[in-house]
Write a structure and sequence with these properties.
Phenylalanyl-tRNA Synthetase, Chain B, domain 1, 6 domains, Phenylalanyl-tRNA Synthetase, Chain B, domain 3, OB fold (Dihydrolipoamide Acetyltransferase, E2P), seven-stranded mixed β-sheet, single chain, 22 helices
Length: 831
């Protein structure tokens, strides 16, 4: 909301010396956010001039210019070249003298043109920022002004005004008006506030008879059980001159408020909307057919709105209609059929109050945000409609030369605000600050509420312009706001002793720390995926669908972290980052097939749910385990002098899994596996005991190509919840032996289909406690090995805890391992 300061000063005593920054500070104290300060773009000298004489001089290009002599209050007149022809000797005009700057910016200087030195410029309304008219000169005589030559035109036309802009929250619609901002400034500073809706001259007009115009509200589809229209006031002004110009002071104020001047009648309705917060609409009375009916649209109806767009109406749209059909979208935009034009002399003024939800839906449905709908959506004072209609009539009489007719209507069926019982001491209890009863009562009366003392409480009736005040906490918030938020101390809570992170939290942090220490970068991605992405990475597994997705193209919740990592990799690769090692720790959503999720027992408002409600809510949530995933693209080791680049591969993904398993004390085993999005020959399932806890592999080349990724993309995903569950509660470390190790190798010939990991496990189990370490070092297939077999070579390290092992002891342990491998997998020693 932009607030011109000259306008604000009409309704509240703002000190003359107060700066825009000080006014901003005062409004911030009562909870309004400062946004900006808007100043005029004009720089003087810009003065009033009297045209003494001129000579029309035809030019070779077919144009006729005027060589003018203009009195600007100096000893000698100034010679000025002008191309306009709508002024005459004796006219008062606005002259921009050399050194002035007009909006654009457009600096003015004395310059030679058309054979003369033009010592300034006679300005049009558009050049001064007062409207769109640029073909003719602004004649002050037409505005009813007769200032002396040399008068400062910037101050005369109100172009020196300044506006402060504040952000208005959705619950404070009353602040979308000069009236509301003036009241807030008064609450902040104690300055005297004068309610423009209660001006004596306006009240006389409000009480004057205005009847006989038929208005019917026939809302057959109310929203939330409430009629869409609760107030509809009309007034008639006859005989206006629609060609009269809008006064410069009004144009200037509207411009600072963010609205351009259109015509006198339209400008007046906009002016009153900003002044009182009540949207107003004007109709050409001659174009109306009969009375007005407020109703919902019928199926198939259309309306041509003021922007010349034909709108297909919904049966939920609230309409203003006459006997000819729809003539306006209620509270949003009027119709072209009854638009005020230059031929309009009789105007019907409408000031109504519409249901906020109905207006918000219509505005969004038709993509028609407007100043009117913005106010109705946030709530308009239902009792200001009569004053607003009377104010428009008053200005049309004063500025347009019209007369007020007794024809009109006054339908007011708005419910009165409910009285709230505010218990003694509740404000202090809620806010943690002691407030006296006088402070509580004074604050509530300052916002316009009626406060009556009762036994152990105040009976508070909020004002009609504050529909947001509907219970004790909202009243307490008003007390805190007006007394001052600085009364509320800033006290940091002290953490209770003896508590800290749970085991699960510590383990999740440990997993992140291990991967980050290994050189991976942690990322976070959105949990939403498309149906095609879900099908690609999760097959036919069920997925949770969002009831109100932020993006209709990604309506499902992820079952895997891998799609998010791939999107992150694509984004970084497109920006030239080709070597990536990424990981994410997050939740996935794993609904069970055939099970319905959700609950109808959502707690309402500030009601505290019981244990049974919490249990039902939890039962309506699908399992959401924590997963950890990693992605490797590009080179694991970059090329450098003396060393070739080492590309990332499946090995890096498996190593990351083993690193996590070792850190969380969960022995992991790797076997060949499958995944719908991974290369069938380069995919591994990861086991903890007999339980599958994850998968590692390389992305299918076809998918990589489709996603504009390199051919080799190594991936890993582990069920972190399972690793934490299976991890040792306490990690017991073995003492480091001081005795030397005995090392031996063994090569075993096994059938091709036997996994090397299973052979390693058998060797380890058979060798017993003396085996300290075992690792696969070679996988040979070729000459000397039977067809359908391969040779696996393992490096073994033996160590005794209490003695130096002999070669025989090491050999016996090794042979025991070989024997178990032979028993299980028909393994034989390679000759």
């Amino acid at each position: 909301m932009r607030v011109p300061l000259s306008w604000l000063r009409e309704f509240v005593d703002v000190p003359a010396e107060a700066t825009p920054e000080e006014i901003h500070a005062a409004l911030v104290r009562v909870g309004l956010e400062e946004e900006d300060i808007h100043r005029g773009e004009l720089v003087g000298p810009i003065v009033v001039g009297t045209v003494l004489e001129f000579v029309d001089e035809p030019q070779s290009n077919g144009k006729t210019i005027r060589w003018c002599q203009v009195d600007v209050g100096e000893s000698e007149p100034r010679g000025i070249v002008c191309g306009a022809h709508n002024f005459f000797p004796g006219d008062k005009v606005v002259v921009s003298l050399p050194g002035a700057v007009l909006p654009g910016p457009f600096p003015i200087s004395a310059r030679k043109t058309y054979g003369h030195v033009s010592d300034g410029m006679i300005a049009s309304a558009k050049e001064l920022g007062l409207g769109e008219e640029h073909s003719g000169i602004l004649r002050l005589t037409e505005l009813g002004l007769d200032p002396a030559p040399g008068t400062d035109a910037i101050a005369l036309l109100g172009l020196d005004d300044v506006a402060v802009e504040v952000n208005v929250t959705p619950d404070r619609g009353y602040a979308f008006s000069i009236r509301g901002i003036a009241r807030e400034y008064s609450n902040s500073t104690g300055a005297v506030f004068r309610d423009p809706a209660l001006a004596p001259a306006l009240l006389e007009l409000v009480e004057a008879p205005h009847t006989g115009f038929p208005v019917t509200v026939a809302d057959q589809a109310p929203i939330r059980g409430r009629n869409g229209c609760s107030v509809f006031v009309t007034r008639v002004v006859r005989g206006i001159d629609p060609t009269r110009p809008t006064p410069a002071w009004m144009v200037s104020r509207l411009r600072l408020a963010g609205v351009r001047s259109i015509s006198l009648a339209v400008d007046v309705t906009n002016y009153v909307m900003f002044e009182l917060g009540q949207p107003i609409h004007g109709y050409d009375l001659a174009k109306l057919s009969g009375g007005i009916t407020v109703r919902r649209a019928n199926a198939g109806e259309t309306l041509t709105t003021l922007d010349d767009q034909v709108r297909k109406l919904s049966t939920e749209d609230l309409l203003i209609t006459d006997e000819s059909g729809p003539i306006g979208l209620a509270g949003v935009m009027g119709g072209a059929a009854t638009e005020i034009s230059d031929a309009t002399s009789d105007v019907l003024i409408e000031a109504a109050n519409f249901d906020p939800v109905s207006i918000a839906r219509t505005a969004r449905r038709h993509k028609l945000p407007s100043e009117a709908s913005k106010r109705f959506e946030r709530g308009v004072d239902p009792l200001v409609a009569e004053a607003a209609a009377a104010r428009v009539a008053q200005l049309l009489v004063e500025l347009g030369g019209g007369t007020i007719d007794e024809l009109g209507s006054s339908l007011i069926e708005a419910p009165a605000p409910s009285t709230i019982t505010l218990r003694d001491g509740l404000v202090s209890a809620l806010l943690g600050v002691e407030y006296t009863p006088e402070e509580v009562r004074g604050s509530l009366e300052a916002i316009g509420a009626r406060v009556e003392a009762s036994e152990g409480a105040f009976l508070v009736t909020p004002p009609s312009w504050r529909p947001d005040l509907d219970d004790e906490p909202t009243l307490a918030e008003e007390v805190a706001r007006l007394v001052g938020y600085d009364r509320i101390p800033s006290i940091l809570p002290v953490a209770p002793p003896g508590r800290g992170l749970t085991r699960e939290q510590r383990m999740r942090r440990a997993a992140s720390t291990m991967l980050a220490a290994g050189g991976l970068t942690e990322v976070q991605s959105y949990p939403f995926v498309s149906a095609a992405t879900h099908k690609r990475f999760s097959g036919d597994a069920p997925a949770m669908r969002l009831a109100n997705a932020l993006d209709a193209e990604v309506p499902l919740l992820r079952r895997s972290l891998i799609p998010g990592l791939l999107d992150t990799a694509r984004r970084n690769l497109s920006r030239g980052l080709t070597d990536l090692a990424l990981f994410e720790v997050g939740t996935v959503f794993l609904p069970e097939a055939g099970k319905a999720y959700g609950s109808d027992s959502l707690p309402v408002g500030n009601a505290h749910p019981g244990d049974d409600v919490v249990a039902e809510l939890n039962a309506g949530i699908p399992p959401q385990p924590w997963h950890v995933a990693a992605l490797f693209v590009g080179d694991r080791v970059v090329r450098q002098p003396g060393e070739a680049a080492v590309p990332a591969s499946l090995v890096d993904a498996i190593d990351a899994a083993r690193q996590l398993g070792a850190g969380l004390a969960v022995p992991l085993r790797v076997e060949q596996g499958s995944h719908p999005a991974m290369h069938p020959g380069r995919t591994a399932e990861i086991f903890a005991g007999d339980r599958v806890v994850g998968v590692a592999g390389e992305l299918l080349p076809a998918i990589a190509d489709d996603l504009d990724l390199p051919r080799v993309v190594a991936l890993l995903e582990l069920d972190l919840n399972a690793l934490i569950e299976l991890g040792a509660r306490e990690v017991v470390t073995a003492p480091i032996s001081t005795y030397p190790a005995a090392t031996q190798d063994v090569s075993l010939v096994v059938p091709m289909e036997v996994p090397a990991g299973d052979v390693l496990a058998a060797l380890t189990e058979g060798a017993g406690a003396l085996l300290e370490h075992a690792a696969l070092v070679d996988d040979y297939r070729g000459q000397g090995i039977p067809e359908g077999s391969r040779s696996l070579t393992f490096a073994l390290r033996f160590r005794g805890p209490d003695r130096t092992l002999t070669a025989a002891e090491a050999s016996d342990a090794r042979l025991a391992g070989v024997a178990l491998a032979a028993e299980r997998f028909r393994a034989s020693l390679r000759e």
